[in-house]
Amino acid sequence: MGNRTTDTYAPVRETSSEKLALVIPTLREAANLHGLLGHIRLVLEPLNIEYEILVVDDDSRDGTTEIVSAAAQKDERVRLLVRNGQRGLSGAILHGWRHTDAGILGVMDADMQHPPELLPPLLAAILDGRDLAIASRYAGGGAIGQWNLTRRLVSAAAVSVTWPIQRAGLRAKDPMSGFFLVRRDCLRQVPLQSFGFKLLLEILVRARIRSVEEIPFSFGSRCHGESKANLKVAVDYARLLAKLYASRFALSGSARRIMRAHSAASHETPQD
Q: What is the DSSP code (8-state) at residue 272?
């Protein structure tokens, strides 16, 4: 397991502002990759935008390397990055983003639950001026698929506890989504956790986001592989929430103190 660290996101010095880098984090997802990569390229090709697809694999040793390498031989816009001795979705995403010069950064799962057809409207939202575009299960018209009651309740609870730490006017209905695009400039020098599975929530709370658009979609069924949700994921999420609550309300307290000091100073009577 890799160390749990907080990375100050430091993008490369020069970027291509209208280029898209789509990161696909993988852990034993080889069975899905061949069809997924072809599907994504088919969807992106007509958009007339520069792009690259970065598969960031946590050393699966299941054939992922061979599949992605073969795709890269046919299309140099497909790239493979392998992390050895490390695990964690957020860390894999950040690793991919640090290895691209694209000005538009994105992520989607490899398990076929995120439809590539949603990439054009997500990209359109960014190109139309949004800082963050989210594929949302909870926006009007979205759906969470064939979840049982327990999973629905857990998901609803996980979303509801984020409401106080999201910023007024920028609150997302689906802050737990793993399918989104964000402008690189919004992440410059922002400290993001390299462990855990919920990077979007951290971006909503910590990044310099001024506008958010949610694009509804219906969450699909897993094609191959196993869900990564387990007790460790829940513990990591709880730790992330604790950090975000602490930083959010510590900042709010500091802001209130500054405002009180400013108000007191403005009411002082000048001395002759």
A: -
